[in-house]
Write a structure and sequence with these properties.
This protein is of the alpha+beta class. The chain has nine helices and 16 strands. The longest helix has 17 residues. The protein starts with a helix and ends with a strand.
Length: about 425
């Protein structure tokens, strides 16, 4: 469906509704997915193309707020649903922490007319990358399993104030497992891509993930036990992402919880190298420019979560922003571009900077390489303790080389 037609339908639905909210948003989201599956070293399901669409209503009325998910409707249907939504809000209990978003005007976003998903992907390069990866794995007598999923999301939002936001983004998730039937060993490689690399670079990204999986699968000999002791720990990007995601999910960076003394950061200030920087809402070469607005379309400033060796910014809800006279921020579950990087020219107080995972392994005398984690849970929030398990590869590193796979373990940190 054309973007202009969607926008007109949403606007007409708002105009036809016979009720008025303190603030209301009608949001249309179109999801497009292209999936390619590999099993037993062959492409088994290809061009698994799924399209879906959702309609969301978000409303505020006399201290009450709610959200409703619907199937796509025409303008009359949207108006009918808005009237019903208004009655539901009016009968709900007031929320003492409800804050009505400030009305916005104008238009924002990066989308004029959304391109089709297949037009954003270099399909020929993608299949060449998969084919070369399969050939390399089979040449070693190993087996390849995995998938490439390319997703595209088009968002059109209209507010009761007349504000319009249209935004489009694309990305790919790549995951491949290489396993050896003879000794039961396996290795996994992950990659994530943004919009530019879908046209130029997706084939190399697929091969890179497969090469990494091969490295983890074939490095070292048979599984073995290691004695208890202190080991350096090397985390792949996938493992780091899981830990950061867990911190956000449990509200470690919630400014209200910090101010009220209910979380680890209320009484502790972790120290990091100044070379490590984590920002939200900035520009990133792999991602489409995100509108710097939170889930209620309120403009927000970029956030520097980690910088100058410590936690800089935390997430502030509309209620806490109003109560403490601060500016509200993005929500942890509604983030624009996240950029985690190492700045080599920063003062780094003795931290070693590496060009990549292989360089970190080469510089490790004795350590454990954690390929991925799962089952991450919060243990004690005031102590900042998280527990989890290693997954898809735990490898022993000695004298700069992977020497043996290990059994998986549970960790507390």
């Amino acid at each position: 469906m054309a973007t202009a037609s969607i926008l007109a339908t949403l606007q007409q639905g708002l105009q036809k509704a016979s009720v008025r909210f303190d603030h209301v948003e009608v949001c249309y989201v179109a999801h497009h997915l292209l999936g390619i599956r590999v099993a037993d070293s062959r492409v088994c399901r290809e061009n698994v193309l799924r399209n879906g669409e959702e309609l969301f209503l978000t409303g505020f009325y006399e201290g009450r707020t709610g959200r409703k998910s619907l199937l796509w409707q025409d303008a009359d249907g949207i108006a009918k649903e808005l009237n019903q939504f208004h009655r539901e809000l009016a009968s709900a209990s007031p929320d003492p922490e409800c804050v009505v978003p400030a009305p916005q005007q104008g238009e924002d976003g990066n989308q004029a007319e959304a391109a089709a998903l297949m037009d954003t992907v270099n399909i020929e390069e993608l299949y060449q990358g998969i084919g070369k990866g399969i050939a390399a794995v089979k040449a070693q007598g190993l087996r390849l399993t995995g998938y490439v999923e390319i997703q595209k999301r088009d968002v059109t939002k209209v507010c009761g104030s007349g504000f319009v936001m249209r935004h489009s983004d694309s990305g790919a998730q790549i995951s491949f497992t290489v396993d050896d039937w003879d000794n039961g060993l396996s290795g996994v490689g992950y990659r994530s891509l943004g919009m530019p690399s879908l046209q130029h670079g997706i084939g190399e990204a697929v091969q890179s993930a497969i090469r990494e999986a091969q490295m983890f699968c074939t490095a070292g000999g048979s599984k073995r036990d290691v004695p208890a002791g202190d080991y350096d720990v090397i985390l792949t990007p996938a493992a780091v992402y899981d830990i950061l995601k867990t911190m956000l999910f449990y509200g470690f960076l919630d400014q209200r919880k910090i101010d009220e003394g209910r979380t680890y950061l209320s009484h502790n200030q972790p120290q990091f190298s100044k070379a490590l920087q984590l920002s939200v809402g900035g520009t990133h070469p792999e991602l489409a420019p995100d509108p710097l607005r939170n889930g209620h379309s309120v403009p927000c400033q970029p956030m520097q979560i980690m910088g100058e060796g410590q936690i800089q910014d935390a997430f502030i809800s509309p209620f806490w922003a109003k109560k403490t006279h601060r500016a509200e921020t993005f929500e942890p579950h509604f983030l624009p571009a996240i950029d985690f990087k190492v700045v080599a020219n920063s003062p780094h107080e003795g931290i070693d900077l590496y060009s990549g995972l292989e360089a970190m392994i080469a510089a490790t005398e004795r350590g454990l390489l954690v390929v991925d984690t799962w089952y991450l849970r919060l243990v004690t929030e005031m102590d900042g303790m998280i527990t989890g398990m290693t997954r898809d590869g735990l490898l022993l590193v000695e004298d700069g080389k992977i020497v043996a796979p290990l059994g998986h373990l549970r960790w507390h940190e």
